[in-house]
Amino acid sequence: METRKTDTVPEVAEPATRTLGPDALKAFAHPLRMTMYSRLATLGSATASQLARQLGESSGQTSYHLRQLERHGFVEDDPAHQGGRERWWRPVGFQLTDPSLLMSPDTEGPAGLVIQHVIAERTAALASWLETLDPTIDEPGLMSAAMLNLTSAQAEQLTTELSEVVQRFQKSQDAAGSDPARRYRVHIDLFPVEQTGPAPS
User: pTM to 2 decimals?
Assistant: First the structure.
């Protein structure tokens, strides 16, 4: 998830991405709901019982919070799993782009909780990958960082182009055919650095 844009990678068809409003933001800023959403994003889809077992919660709790997430548009039925005894849920991508959500006294608290959860979850995911990394197995993976001197227009262009690359691969997920596929996490962070010394020339 990103402050600017959060996308999930579903198993079948890409759910619509929507802009987050105040009511939905406040409903989402619940520790268990954010954790459940993150787990769904990792798994692709899951049932309330599966989430309960993985998170050490009761299925009643996860069912209730899934219904609340559905009410505010954060999850939906997974069309790849229809007709079973339990509903399969998949996450719906959303955007957190309205700057007023970070400045309004009514929503700055929930917005801060969501952003802090994103940062903590990304850090934990990266640490887990490094701990389980097998150097004897050759598989794609990347840790990269760069510092660039950009104008506001250039930064916006870079943000747009990076997002377009991710979206292109989202739309071409089924093109792999019979080749085995795995879920990959893709994190993109782009933000200005606080200047503590002389401005770059």
Answer: 0.77
